[in-house]
Write a structure and sequence with these properties.
The protein is an alpha+beta fold. The protein contains 5 helices and 16 strands. The mean pLDDT is 95.
Length: 275
């Protein structure tokens, strides 16, 4: 059973634990990221919004979305990516949920249609405009991520934004009116100039940087030579499954796509997508 269970909680209820979030960072001390809720709310904080997140180990957990970080003795601000790389899966899933809700709350304090003040809808994950009656729900941006394969070779690329030396799969956002199949083919063509075939869906992963849903695929190489997209791709190469470069974090869906294909080619047990 998962320790983290997301749920819309009533913020009028007292007690519980709270996480403090600001710009993809969380307040933490030697005990972790959960603080006594009533105690932390009494500190000198610039609170943008408070939301009920769910239950962790059966205890109610809430979110304080802050306008700016604050200093507290014995505490530090840690990035969400740090928890992805170093923390346990349940804690990361909780913070992933919190970061997406906090970002949505801070970006929807005012209505994008009329500019009126927004109010949280009790018992629902929604913001309501008192002036024009419009409701806004948490944003989710679908994107594809794909591993292109050619026998014992896989196509990996580097973005200038990556950690030095790391190569990964290709990815991109789904455009308005576009199917996932068309998105995968278009992004591969744009980023590395090759054509693909035999698309296979493998799984999905929420990606809270800040609010994506990654839909993962394998695709076979069909034709073309590598032509890298200017300003997007720093390097792209075919790598043998027997000789791979530094790869993405083990908890990422990018790494999962790579590990599954390598396991299949080498006759090894397939990994499980981190949940």
């Amino acid at each position: 059973m998962q320790r983290w269970q997301p749920l819309v909680l009533d913020t009028q209820q007292p007690g519980g634990w709270v996480v403090a979030h600001c710009k993809q960072h969380f307040l933490a001390d030697s005990n972790g990221v959960l603080f006594p809720r009533e105690w932390l709310k009494k500190q000198d904080l610039l609170i943008v919004a408070e939301h009920g997140l769910g239950h962790f180990d059966g205890d109610a957990v809430y979110l304080l979305e802050l306008a700016q970080p604050f200093d507290m003795p014995g505490c530090s601000w840690q990035s969400l990516r740090q928890f992805m790389l170093q923390g346990d899966a349940d804690t990361f899933n909780m913070l992933s949920n919190a970061a997406q809700i906090g970002t949505w709350a801070s970006q929807h304090r005012f209505c994008g249609s009329c500019g009126g003040a927004m109010q949280h809808v009790a018992g629902e994950r929604a913001m309501h405009c008192l002036r024009c009656e419009l409701q806004h729900y948490p944003r989710l941006s679908p994107s594809m991520i794909v591993l292109v394969t050619r026998g014992d070779e896989i196509l990996l690329a580097r973005s200038p934004r990556f950690v030095s030396g790391v190569y990964s799969t290709l990815a991109g956002f789904v455009e308005v009116g576009e199917s996932l199949e068309h998105c995968v083919a278009r992004e591969v063509r744009e980023e590395v100039g090759v054509e693909i075939k035999n698309l296979q869906y493998l799984g999905s992963q929420g990606w809270p940087f800040p609010h994506s849903l990654m839909l993962g695929f394998h695709a076979q190489y069909a034709s073309g030579d590598i032509v890298m997209q200017v300003d997007e791709i720093e390097d792209a190469q075919w790598f043998s499954v027997h000789d791979l470069p530094p790869l993405p974090a083990a908890r990422s869906i990018a790494r999962y796509l790579i590990d599954v294909y390598v396991a299949r080619r080498l006759g090894q047990p397939e990994p499980v997508l981190p949940g």
